[in-house]
Hints:
Layout: E1 4-10, E2 13-20, E3 26-30, E4 35-41, H1 46-70, H2 85-103, E5 109-113, E6 120-123, E7 128-132, H3 140-152, H4 161-170, H5 174-181
Amino acid sequence: MPLSTTEHTHLGIYFSLTRKRMKNIRLRVIAPSGEVKVSAPHRARVEDVLHFIAEKQVWIRQHQQRIQAQIPDTPVPEQDLEHLREPMKQRIAELLPIWEQRMHVRASSFGVRKMKTRWGSCNIRTRKIWLSLALAAKDEDLLEYVLVHELVHLKEAGHNARFYGFMDEYMPDWREKHKRLNPNARIRL
């Protein structure tokens, strides 16, 4: 059977439903829009899909809020930030050795790229740090905050009490910076 996609709303959640060859109903919340996509077997009844949405509604809304909170709120389109890429990389190159020495960690390398849902990321395996080009439009101390945040991941992979303990140790005012960078986000401690 060919794929078929229809649009639906249930419990205030707008979603697209694609029917295809598969065994179970699946759900995705797509960044940066927060769009909900459901895939279901051809044999699944609409009632089954709606029941699935009802069961997952809290998770869907939480995920949409998390995505919305992570989206960089940049007043300047990222294509207009390209000319700031090299100065931003130069500033990171200045900050990185200072923080590596302070924290007793070493990143293998760093890069700057366009990111839709994050300010930065750290590949624990390769020890490479990526920072969002959108940070070029933010205050310099926020760039430093994100850099420290990613370096802390070299000490603790997850966002847990140990991670936040390191953040408190290395950058005691990180919560204020986090709030400025993500005014709608909620920090879970």
